[in-house]
Amino acid sequence: MVNKTNVQAAPTTISIPTLRKDFKDRVIAPGDTDYDKARAVFYGGMDRHPAVIIKVADTNDVSRVINLARESGLELAVRSGGHSVPGHSVTEGGILLDLSTMKDLQIDPESRTAWAETGLTAAEFTKAAAAHGLAVGFGDTGSVGIGGITLGGGVGYLVRKYGLTIDSLLAAEVVTADGQIRHVDEQTHPDLFWAIRGGGGNFGVATRFKFRLYEVPSVVGGMLVLPATPETIANFVAESEAAPEELSGIGNVMFAPPMPFLPAEAQGKLIIMAVLVYAGDVEAGQRALAPFRAIATPLADMLHPMGYPEIYPPEQEDYHPVATAHTMFVDKIDLPVAQTIVDHLQASTAMMRVAQLRVLAGAMARVPVDATAFAHRNSKIMVNVAALYQNPEEKATHEAWVTNFATALLQNDHGAYVNFLGDEGEERIRAAYPGSTWDRLLEVKARYDPANLFRLNQNIPVLTK
Ligand SMILES: Cc1cc2nc3c(=O)[nH]c(=O)nc-3n(C[C@H](O)[C@H](O)[C@H](O)COP(=O)(O)OP(=O)(O)OC[C@H]3O[C@@H](n4cnc5c(N)ncnc54)[C@H](O)[C@@H]3O)c2cc1C
After folding, report:
1. For the chain, how far is it from start to end, CA to CA, in angstroms?
2. Alpha carbons 353 and 43: distance in angstroms, whole number
3. Which pLDDT tens digit goes with each residue over 128-155?
4. Helices 335-347 & 395-409 angle (0-180, nearest 10)
5. Are 291 and 309 in contact (CB under 8 A)?
């Protein structure tokens, strides 16, 4: 039997005046001027109304909010950067524990480690670490919170050179469902340390992470835009596979948006909008990037030596797209597969549709499959197909397109990356955690969160005998 709810059957009400006394100006409730801003998440189309939002100041606050959620029986949402694809970081009628003001960062350049509070975004962390010539690999977007991306794995521009974000995680401070503050590493609570590296927010609230940092004084990288045909797509993937591990990147196959750096004749045509990063010496970087420039005459070539934080350009704060997406892994993208990608992108009516291709391997693949709860170490290429649109009434059309596209691409690897999963049901969560990973996660869940307090996530259920 699966227990998906908290054992507290009937939620009790909470007193906002009492909370305001306890948490002072850190409480935001319906009717407050900043309530709508505080409940907004990255993706549009989510209109949930928490009973209260508490902007926690420190780990003790986190523990108190967890106790409040447990005792009141109200649903608990936990928010770091707010980029959850299914909107798991906001609740209807529950308590929103908002970590976004917990941004302390202690960098020790000598030991090349950092303790970082989980309200930091990837861009904030990256900028501060770069001041010491150091870096941790997060993802492709600066506003993503280090809380969510790290707990799910973390696939970014250093993945082939230094592995996933979790491969840089040395320790964490986690507040579990009983309100206890626990130091977690290979020696202390090793089961929990294994589970939080890929298992998401199922086991507690991570308030601080200790990362190993790498020397990344500069990189050669940026955007390279190529015309997209079956040939260029297949070549792009082949060159990404053949490239040295210093080079990681993303190829977005999409229709050219009206962007000033693209020539007029490219507008509305299929392109590969690639972002490539070579983490190493400038000359070697230019050599590694040359084969990509030779795939076809680039429509735009903005590859250049740069500081690593430049991978995170400024973002529009009011950008809240509505999206439908499917995450998967494939073994190969040869000409027929590339043709399938082109055909499906052409068939969609979405305002923007994209097949995002990330060639993996390298350092990420050298970590044993069972070392962390991220079990896709041997997966070759991560693909994310997505349709972005404005009118929520178009949802069914775009969902059907995404499903057809993903079905046409399906090969032997039936895995899924948890951080890109939407609200897709248990079968897909199990695809993120195949085989013995699932069994181990069930055990750790039962041990640390037996009442499933942390259930607003890609949920590992609590099995009752
Ligand atoms: C535009 C965009 C680009 C992306 N690019 C990449 C990419 O390149 N690589 C990649 O790997 N992923 C990428 N992602 C996916 C991203 O890693 C996940 O959406 C991630 O969960 C977001 O983290 P967050 O802290 O911003 O989100 P939130 O919505 O705040 O949290 C996401 C989930 O994690 C839980 N959570 C967050 N912080 C904590 C914490 N401290 N303790 C316990 N639970 C917590 C939340 O409860 C929620 O369930 C991208 C997402 C978006 C929207």
Report:
1. 7
2. 16
3. 999 999 999 999 999 999 999 999 999 9
4. 170
5. no
Phi, psi of 184 (to 5 degrees): -130, 125
Pick the residue whose CA is nearest to atom 15 on ligand 1: 419
Residue 12 burial class via C-beta count within 10 angstroms: exposed 0-12, middle 13-18, buried 19 and up? exposed
CA 152 to centroid of ligand 1, rounded, Å: 7
Find the length of the chain: 465
- Tokens 């919170």, located at residue: 145
pLDDT in tens, 291-347: 999 999 999 999 999 999 999 988 988 888 889 999 999 999 999 999 999 999 999
Enter the tokens of residue 214.
Answer: 């790498």
Rounded distance, CA 168 to CA 239, Å?
Answer: 27
> Of 149, 311, 357, 420, which is best to mutate to test ligand 1, by the most ligand atoms within 8 angstroms of its C-beta?
149
Sheet with 76-79, side-by-side order of all strands:
27-28, 52-55, 95-98, 76-79
Return the amino acid letter for 457. Answer: N
Structure tokens, 221: 């990288």
Residue whose CA is closest, atom 47 of ligand 1?
Answer: 78
Q: CA–CA separation, 265 vs 244, rounded Å?
A: 33
Lining ligand 1 with CB less than 6 A are: 42, 78-85, 88-89, 99, 118, 139-141, 144-145, 147-149, 151-156, 200-201, 205-206, 419-420, 457
Q: Which residue has the tokens 């899924």?
A: 416
3-class DSSP assignment, residue 215: strand
Does the pLDDT value for residue 10 go beyond 70? no
Per-residue CA distances from 203 to 18, 97, 329, 458 (Å): 28, 15, 26, 12
* Torsion 116-153-458-357 (CA) sign: positive
Average pLDDT score over the chain = 95
Please tell me the distance from the alpha carbon of residue 78 to that of residue 176, in angstroms, as a whole number: 13
Q: How far apart are CA 47 and CA 40, in angstroms?
A: 8
Residue 401 backbone phi and psi in degrees, to 5: -65, -45
Nearest residue to 224 via CA among 127, 294, 164: 294
Predicted pLDDT at 6 = 41
Residue among 229, 227, 276, 230 at smallest CA distance from 251: 276
Contact between 299 and 226 (Cβ < 8 Å):
yes
Ligand 1 atom 39 nearest Cα: 147
Nearest CA to ligand 1 atom 23: 148
Q: Which residue's CA is the nearest one to ligand 1's atom 21?
A: 148
